[in-house]
C-alpha cells in the first residue's frame, strides 16, 4: 500500500491538439499546479509508452503588463524552446475553449517576446510571428553572408542553406522535390551541426511558383513533423530573400496548408492556419512530480557555448 501511495502523484488535466498534424499536449498551468522535469516530458512524449506529441505547450499567467498569457514550449526531447507557430494557433483555440479568455485578439508572452493571435470566425487563427532575425547568436552566419545563402560542410558534402530565426533557429535548403529530399539523413546531421550552436530546425523547400511552395521540416528536438509553423515562416523569408517567392505564399506541408505573408526585412511574418482539438484527458503523474519546483525542471533551451 505504501509503495502504491508513494507512486500516486497529482492528477493532471490536458488537451491533445494539433496544427496540421504537428501535435501537442496542452496543459493549463493556471488552474492546476504543474512542473515537469525534462525526463518526464520525454516519457509523456513517447508515442508507445506515453501520450505521444511533438511538443508540450504550457499555459501560464502573464509575466508582463498588457499581455494575456505566458506560453512555454517544450520539444519531445524535453528541451524548452522559444517559438512554435502551429502551437500558437492551438494555444489560441485552447484558452478560448477552456474559457480562460473570450478575447479574439490574444497577446501572449513567449521566450522570444510577445506574439499576437487573432481567432477568425471560420476557426482559422492568424498569428503575428514577429520580425525574423537573419543572424542572431543562434545562427552566426553573418561572416559569409551572400544573399543570405551560406555553405555548410556536412561529412565532406557542401550544402547551401539560408539561416533564419523566428525566435527559434532554422536552416532552409531549396530542393527540387520534397518527396525525394534527404530529410531523414541530412536533416538530423544539420539539426546538430556545429554551425548551429543551439541546434536548428531544418526545412526542405520546393518552389512551385512565386506564391506556392511545398515544405518538409526536420524539427530540432522532435524529428520530422507533419507541419512546422515557424518553419513555414522561415522558409518564406528565405525564399523571399533569395528572390524566389513573392510576399504572400501558400505553403503545402505534409499535414496541410498554411498561408504566410511577409512584406520584407524589418516587418513581421504573418501566418494563418487551422487549430484542432482532438481529446481531453487526465493522467496521474509519478509521485515525485507536481507543483514543487525541482532542479532542472523545464529550464529554457541553453545554447551550447
Ligand atoms: N522544434 C521547434 C519548436 C516547435 C516548432 C514547430 N512545431 C512550429 O510549429 O513552429 C524548435 O525546437 O525550435
Automatic annotation (TrEMBL):
Annotated residues for binding of substrate: 22, 55, 75, 85-86, 168, 201, 219-220, 229-230
Chemical reaction(s) catalysed: (2S,6S)-2,6-diaminopimelate = meso-2,6-diaminopimelate
Keywords: Amino-acid biosynthesis, Cytoplasm, Isomerase, Lysine biosynthesis
Membrane-spanning intervals of the chain: none
Residues at the site labelled Important for dimerization: 279
Domain of life the protein comes from: Bacteria
Pfam families with a match to the protein in the record: DAP_epimerase (PF01678)
GO cellular component: cytosol
Subcellular location: Cytoplasm
Region (Disordered): 281-305
Ribosomal protein in keyword set: no
Single Gene Ontology BP annotation: lysine biosynthetic process via diaminopimelate
EC number: 5.1.1.7
Pathway(s) this gene product operates in, as recorded in its UniProt entry: Amino-acid biosynthesis; L-lysine biosynthesis via DAP pathway; DL-2,6-diaminopimelate from LL-2,6-diaminopimelate: step 1/1
Gene3D superfamilies found in the cross-reference section: Diaminopimelate Epimerase, Chain A, domain 1 (3.10.310.10)
Acetylation is among the record's keywords: no
Feature type site, description Could be important to modulate the pK values of the two catalytic cysteine residues: 170, 219
Composition-biased stretches (Basic residues): 292-305
Entry GO MF terms: diaminopimelate epimerase activity
Active site location: 84, 84 (proton donor), 228 (proton acceptor)
Subunit structure as annotated in this protein's UniProt entry: Homodimer.
Job description of the protein: Catalyzes the stereoinversion of LL-2,6-diaminopimelate (L,L-DAP) to meso-diaminopimelate (meso-DAP), a precursor of L-lysine and an essential component of the bacterial peptidoglycan.
Family: Belongs to the diaminopimelate epimerase family.
Protein name, per record: Diaminopimelate epimerase
Organism of derivation: Marinobacter guineae
The gene coding this protein: dapF
